[in-house]
Amino acid sequence: MDLGSILQYLVSGLTVGSTYGLTALGFTIIFNATRVINFAQGEFVMLGGMLAVFFAGALNLGVFPAVLLAVSCTTLVGVCMERLTIRPVQGANVVNIIIITIGVSIFIRGVVMLFLGKDTFSLPPFFGTEALEFFGAMIIPQSIWILLITMLVLVGLRTYFNKTIFGKAMLACSFEQKAAHLVGISVDRMIMLSFAISALVGSIGGVILTPITLTSYDVGIMLGLKGFAACILGGLGNPFGAAAGGLIIGVLESFGAGFISSAYKDAFAFIILLVILFVKPSGIFGRADIERV
Amino acid sequence: MGGKQNIISLAVFIVVAAGFPWILPSEYYISILILSGITAIAVVGLNLLLGFAGQISLGHAAFFGISAYTSAILTTNYGFPVLAGIICGIFLSAIVAFLIGMPALKLKALSLAMATLGFGLIVYIFMNETITLTGGPSGFVGIPRFNIMGYDFYSDLAYYYLVASSLTVVIIISLNLINSRAGRALKAIHSSENAARVMGINVHRYKLFVFVLSAVFAALAGGLYAHYLSFVAPSAFGFHASLQLIVMAILGGMSSVWGGVIGALFLTSMPEFLRIYEELETILYGLILILCMMFMPQGLAGGLGKLAGYVSGKLFRRGLK
Amino acid sequence: MNKDAALLKCSDIYVRFGGVMALSGVSFQAEKNSISALIGPNGAGKTTLLNVITGMISQSEGSIEFKSRDLSSIAAHIRSQEGMIRTFQNLEVFAHMSVLENVMTGAHNRYKYTVLDSILKTPKYFARERQCRDAALEKLKFVGLEKERDLPALDLPYGKQRLLELARAICGDPALILLDEPAAGLNSRETRTLGEVIAAIRQDFGITVVLVEHDMELVMSISDQITVLNFGQVIAKGTPRDIQNNPEVIEAYLGSDD
């Protein structure tokens, strides 16, 4: 076990973990607004990658316009999902809404499969292909892009929630919907916004990873599950805990694959997750709720 | 309470189940019914956990799979009699359920969902990777058909009756359980764990009990599945399968045992009917799921119940006139 | 056990939530077959004390003795089996059951049979269920809810849900019941009925009652002993008359002049 390979696994773990983290962020934003776990979150991530591939290839756009277009289309899908399937059943049982999101995820997967096919696609790297050597580890430029963009998204969201009136209104909704409503915040609009932001963040996560890991219509399932795991690991409801949870799962997985067995890399991440849950049920960064009796 | 109603429902179910094969146009539909019945056994069990005790499991297909593989391996590689294989499979699933439920059931709602989900995925990955034992992703073949004391259930009709009677037993057990002290304890836990504790109910023990029981039902279904298809592959026991079971329980209607049966029948047979639309199958499946949940929040059992109430209300009023 | 020993005895209870001291050195006891009230301004620690006694939260220090047995670190459901049952400030009726089933659940440990008995519907199952049902019906009649027995519990109006919780609590045949603000949200007529029911619970069933309550008229009319808490400490103990004239208590409730 030398420094070079440790570094190598760390970087590749952080790279994949960034996408998990962004997926987890999406889960958290919707959860905070609605108390619902959106099982279509993984499909937002898949859509980001698949649409970018489609726009770059079929429409012959460059990588950047294709990426921008893919991200905006996915955001629109998020908004449509909220308007068509979530708002009409407002106030329904949370379990029912979760099943609806499962239906939406199957539907989106079906549509993508129908129009874009079952093949695996790749996207050219955003900028530069020459790997850099760093203390014995080979780092491809795309990894740096992924980390940079993820940081940017995190900083952007933090500013949004702390500095803008919309962000603060969304935070208010997540603490106490009724009170938010009473001070004149349109809860409906905030929920729609939460779907839009989740889809936006998720699709960014999907699109930045595609040049490294390839994509197909069904990658959303596993990415969604890892994202969900990251949320729980970070302490559900805490957006930045979720992002950190994603990075942790990515790194665990990468080290598991490197030092133990690549076949069991997914199992490795989940076993650690179970151990953490059993030892600290509220997640690494979560606070234990004090239940009022 | 409700005892008379249960007996009537049960009688209707037995008559319908016994008569079903005779009104079907072809053998092919019997195999769909068999698979629906097998799935229903698992879903009724899951519904005890989810609908009555209010505890979620997103990894239930793992118990189905552990038992299917255990029985398949023991009977095919080690010459166990089929019945012994299935019993071993059920036993192993119950032990695993006990060990995983012990820590997991202390968790609340979504953490419990994650823990069971993680457990299911781990089992799924092992099924894929322990190739010498399970045959890996391409599956395990050559499993003997169910037989008991020299009688082989070779015809689909015979197998159908085997599955239908197993399902009936599972339903009876579930109905009797719900209308008892233990059933009330489970429902109490669903409403308020604190209040249940105050009534002297050992909350953790009851949760563990119903978790293991539902795993046992899933395991029974797994055994019947393996010895019907004579082939098992991990893809039938992954996350998607666990999710299917949950969806069936909820779509069918969580507040009754019959909901699980209806949900399993509906969702197992629907893809067969959607198959003619080929490429559109997945899209339609998703769409039907969304619409059902949006417009029938009580599930199919609730929806049918309402319909029956409406119809009998109309007839009754007309009768008065 | 000598005759006038306290049924429940809490000594020097401390509870800390993070940096906040919710209870600091509270001692409290309830004599057998008495009605003892715990009063005090909001946030004084009354419900916390109830939670500690019933095992919903654990104390940092101090001991709880019940029927002369130390229960300090025993799980909540076992304390209930030992004979102490409580009700809740925010109603916790079992939503997925009928009124009758709610009360039957209260007798969970009184009429026991195994799961196998229920699955096989053995004679024991029928016998015990009948006993349980009769006991539950008797308690429903006692609180005046026998007509509503088959309704879903959540369909009952608020005041009747309170009575349902009482019926459920006494159906387990406890030695002690602890009532957490049973009159909260009731009108004055309902409160009077409640007072009669509580008095009758002691009279007819010989159950000792501990009462946390804000309604002073109710407290003064039925309690034998009153303990006053303020900021997590006991500031007075005595009969209703003692308490009414205690300057410290008046100050805690109305604030001091300076």
Plain-language structure description:
The complex is a heterotrimer of chains A (293), B (321) and C (258). Chain A has 293 residues and is mainly alpha-helical. Chain A has helices at residues 3-34, 41-57, 63-86, 94-116, 141-163, 165-175, 177-182, 187-213, 219-234, 239-259, 265-279, and strands at residues 132-134, 137-139. Chain A has one domain (3-279): ABC transporter involved in vitamin B12 uptake, BtuC. A two-stranded antiparallel ribbon of chain A has the order 1-2. Chain B has 321 residues and is an all-alpha fold. Chain B has one domain (3-239). Chain B has a two-stranded antiparallel ribbon. In chain B, strands 2-3 form a two-stranded antiparallel sheet. Chain C is of the alpha/beta class and 258 residues long. In chain C, 40% of the residues lie in helices and 24% in strands. Chain C has helices at 46-54, 76-82, 99-106, 115-120, 123-143, 158-171, 188-205, 216-222, 240-244, 247-254; strands at residues 6-17, 20-31, 35-39, 61-66, 69-70, 84-86, 176-180, 208-212, 225-230, 233-238. In chain C, strand 1 and strand 2 (20-31) form a beta hairpin. In chain C, helix 3 (99-106) crosses helix 5, helix 3 packs parallel to helix 6 (158-171) and helix 5 packs across helix 6. The radius of gyration of chain C is 19 Å and the shape is globular. The model of chain C has no long low-confidence stretch (mean pLDDT 90). The A-B interface holds A 37, 85, 88-89, 92-93, 95-97, 99-100, 102-111, 113-114, 221, 225, 228-229, 232, 236, 263-264, 266-267, 270-271, 273-274, 277-278, 281-283, 291, 293 and B 103-104, 106-108, 110-111, 113-115, 117-119, 121-122, 125-126, 128-129, 194, 239-240, 243, 246-247, 250-251, 254, 279-290, 293-294, 297.
